[in-house]
Amino acid sequence: MRVLLVEDDDRLASALTTALARHGHQVARAGLAVDALRLAGGVDFVLLDLGLPDMDGLEVLRRLRRVSAVPVIVVTARTEEREVLRGLRSGADDYLVKPFRTVELMARMEAVMRRGTRPMPTRDHVVSVGDVRIDLEARQVTVSGEQVTLTRREFDVLALLAREPGVVRSREEILDEVWGDPLLSASRSLDVHVAGLRSKTGRPHLVETLRGTGYRLGSTPLAGA
Ligand code: CA
């Protein structure tokens, strides 16, 4: 496989490159986030260190996930549950905590590849559900051609679901992406925002609730007001 190794530590990068090459992989290395984002389009697998000099690794992951479904294993020195959770919520397929053994890395990479690829995020700027039109670029929503005014966060919640139609997003994932805190689970904010989306659009099924699991963009025909 073509593997992109995103790691700013030269010694670790060199050791990993050798190990990956020994297992038959072609390795491209990026020491900076900006190079990682540029190179990620041409590889089959990404190993992403979270502590990078120019950008937080989780932000790299979020940006990458907007355009790519490439398998990603996050490599981190952080052991906090919150950080690991955020990595997985941001689209990592697995994670490894430094220091780790090469054999463990190879096993995790194989396991991720066996699981298969995730659905591609939408490349379209406009997502339509029934008569609801969501313009992700212009941040505008119309219902039957009429513009609906949403708050910034209401739109962010809707856009998160619209980017991958059919994919269920957990409460934690939405709270992490939109509020920046996955463990804000006790908050009623999300319920209030989902209720706002439903009432402002007059399309109660635009956002489906999957009890105990999360939310997804409505796939059933949308009922009128
Ligand atoms: Ca680092």
Verbal overview:
- Helices cover 39% and strands 21% of the residues.
- By secondary structure, it is of the alpha/beta class.
- The strands form three sheets. Strands 2-1-3-4-5 form a five-stranded parallel beta sheet, with helices on both faces. Strands 6-7-8-9 form a four-stranded antiparallel beta sheet, with helices on one face.
- Strand 8 (140-143) and strand 9 (146-148) form a beta hairpin.
- The longest helix is centred in the middle third of the chain and has 14 residues, at 102-115.
- 31% of the residues are buried.
- Residues 8-9, 49, 51-52 line the site of calcium ion.
How is the secondary structure organized here?
Elements: E1 2-6, H1 10-22, E2 26-30, H2 33-39, E3 45-49, H3 57-67, E4 72-76, H4 81-89, E5 94-97, H5 102-115, E6 126-129, E7 132-135, E8 140-143, E9 146-148, H6 152-163, H7 171-179, H8 189-201, E10 207-210, E11 214-217
Parallel strand pairs: 1-2, 1-3, 3-4, 4-5
Antiparallel strand pairs: 6-7, 7-8, 8-9, 10-11
Helix pairs in contact: 2-3, 6-7, 6-8
The site of calcium ion has 5 residues, from loops.
Taken from the alpha-carbon principal axes, the silhouette is elongated
Across the major sheet, the strand order is 2-1-3-4-5
Briefly note the structural class of the backbone.
Answer: alpha/beta
Helical fraction equals 25-40%
Name the CATH superfamily classification of the largest domain: Response regulator
CATH class of the largest domain: Alpha Beta
How far apart lie the N and C ends? 52 Å
Number of strands: 11
Question: Which regions are unreliable across 5 or more consecutive residues at pLDDT < 50?
Answer: none
| CATH architecture level-2 label of the largest domain | 3-Layer(aba) Sandwich
- Portion of residues in beta strands equals 15-25%
Helix-strand pattern: EHEHEHEHEHEEEEHHHEE
- Gyration radius (Cα, Å) is 19 Å
Number of helical stretches of at least 4 residues = 8
* Number of structurally distinct domains: 2
Overall average residue pLDDT: 87
Q: What is the third-level CATH name, the topology of the largest domain?
A: Rossmann fold
The main pleated sheet reads as:
5 strands, parallel
Compounds present?
Answer: calcium ion
